[in-house]
Amino acid sequence: MAGILDIGVSALLSFQNSLNTTGHNIANSDTEGYSRQRTLHATQLPELRGYGWLGTGVKVTGVERLTDQFLST
After folding, report:
1. Of all helices (H) and strands (E), which one includes residue 40?
2. Across-strand partners of 41?
3. What per-residue string of b and e applies to 35-54 under the rule 16 or more CB within 10 Å gives b?
4. How many other C-beta atoms lie within 10 A of the C-beta of residue 14?
5. Residue 11 in contact with residue 60, Cβ under 8 Å?
6. What is the pTM of this model?
7. Domain extent at residue 17
8. Per-residue pLDDT tens over the stretch 15-45
9. In sequence order, what DSSP letters do the residues of 22-70 get, joined into one string?
10. Are 38 and 21 in contact (CB under 8 A)?
11. How many other C-beta atoms are found inside a 10 Å radius of the C-beta of residue 10?
């Protein structure tokens, strides 16, 4: 049961990070030269249990800055 709860916790923490990034994008939308950011997610490595492989959740792998070359020029 703890494994299932750990998966849920990892998802909540990862997407809390995404919400923080979205809030950062909104707060800086009028800032000159600001480009929006996106949070990147990936699955965590699964664990081998007696009955097979068990997923361990999601993790944040980074924050990516997005730019549009047509708007920049």
Report:
1. strand 37-43
2. 60
3. ebeebeeeeeeeeeeeeeee
4. 18
5. no
6. 0.78
7. 2-72
8. 999 999 999 999 999 998 889 999 999 999 9
9. HHHHHHTTTSTT---EEEEEEEPPPEEETTEEE---EEEEEEEE---HH
10. yes
11. 18
In the three-class reduction of DSSP (H, G, I as helix; E, B as strand; rest coil), residue 59 is classed as strand
- What is the domain count for the chain? 1
Quote the Cα angle for 32-37-42, to 5°. 175
Q: What are phi and psi of 12, to 5 degrees?
A: -65, -45
Which residue's entry shows tokens 């929006």? Answer: 36
β-pair type (37-43, 58-65):
antiparallel
Contact call for residues 40 and 64 (beta carbons, < 8 A): yes
Q: Which of 1, 3, 2 is nearest to 57 (CA)?
A: 3
CB count in 10 Å sphere of residue 62: 10
